[in-house]
Amino acid sequence: MVKVHVVTRENASRYGQALHDYFRLRHLIYVEERGWEDLRRPDGLERDQFDTDAAVHLIAMEGREVVGGSRMIPMSAPTLLSDVFPHLVQRGKLPRDQAAIEWTRMFVAPAHRTGHRERSVAGALFCAVMEYCHAIGATSVGGVMETFWLPRWQRFGWTTRVLGLPEDIAGCMTLAAFMDVDRKALDGVRAATGWPGSVLARREASEDEPALSLLAS
């Protein structure tokens, strides 16, 4: 059974191997598969300037195996949209408060990609993103995304606000958009993906273990 673990600066020390595998898979997918050479690192771990202590990593695990993940950052902190792609926001204002969450680095490990079947790893991650945002009181989630995601959000019943016209970035049509976070959105993604209950898990921080910094090195 897949569970999606909420990894923060407070409990990161309990996820040492999982975090290593998570960053290794990000390198495999974004550098080796997608060809984002600017992210290539000699240690084979994909981390960037936004992997700070402000980031929350949603790590999908099947037992001890990391099978997928996503990164969540409050828009009050530096984000990919605010610092690298602010020009994608052409309608309205760039959200810059904690109630808006940037969602980036969504991936599923190659061996666990099962298309659109119910109860997939991807489905668990979609549910986890909305469940996490709803739990912390966020009102919107999104950021920089490829346009091919928009029909998926429609299938989930998510209300999506597109903030500008798409642009070709690294060979993909990309835009800025945010989805509303509410109970209807959570129920919709659960119904669409076949994950009816909570998918989130969390290991509590150990008082006798030092915190593990997530700062990019």
UniProtKB/TrEMBL annotation:
Superkingdom classification of source: Bacteria
Enzyme class (EC, first level): transferase
Keywords: Autoinducer synthesis, Quorum sensing, S-adenosyl-L-methionine, Transferase
Catalytic activity: a fatty acyl-[ACP] + S-adenosyl-L-methionine = an N-acyl-L-homoserine lactone + S-methyl-5'-thioadenosine + holo-[ACP] + H(+)
GO molecular function: N-acyl homoserine lactone synthase activity
This protein's record includes keyword Transferase: yes
InterPro entries: Acyl_CoA_acyltransferase (IPR016181), Autoind_synthase (IPR001690)
GO BP: any one term: quorum sensing
EC number, as in UniProt: 2.3.1.184
Similarity comment: family membership: Belongs to the autoinducer synthase family.
Name of the featured protein: Acyl-homoserine-lactone synthase
Species in which this protein is naturally found: Microvirga subterranea
